[in-house]
Amino acid sequence: MSAEPRINDRIRVPEVRLVGPNGEQVGIVPLVKALELARESDLDLVEVAPTARPPVAKLMDYGKFKYESAMKAREARRNQAHTVIKEIKLRPKIDPHDYETKKGHVVRFLKAGDKVKVTIMFRGREQSRPELGIRLLQRLAEDVAELGFVESRPKQDGRNMIMVIAPHKKKAEARAEARAERAARERARRAN
What we know:
Elements: E1 15-19, E2 25-30, H1 31-40, E3 44-49, E4 56-60, H2 62-79, E5 85-90, H3 96-111, E6 115-121, H4 130-143, E7 148-157, E8 160-167, H5 171-191
Parallel strand pairs: 1-4, 5-6
Antiparallel strand pairs: 1-2, 3-4, 6-8, 7-8
């Protein structure tokens, strides 16, 4: 079976429920009369609901309809934001400066609208102290609370402990804000 609707002579039923070019209900008419009406108005007869009894057919310009639906699909794909999961790896005994650097990366990712997977890697005896990892992850979650929220709580996965932080803003909103900010900076630069 093709995903394309049947049009004109490909429709093989004795009668159809006809819908006019402006969406008005014409009623149940024999297929021959519906095809005749389509030819008179220089339009195509397109089967829009083949499973209905009788099938529903509409008078329309099929080429224009296909073009417009392809343009809508293309526009939807262009506006679609892909969710990216960025990963940051930490150790339980992290230096304060290193922590600030890693936190800065998390902040940058959340501002861009990406999710962040924070992984704490335990080695050797550190594995017997998972509370250190939990404390570090909670501290990080509190530090970035204005930008994101904890989507999945910290959980031990072998030698690693994992937590996912999701942004409050959607990716599309973050992109729009970044674009507006860039435009404002450009206007300010041109004004000087």
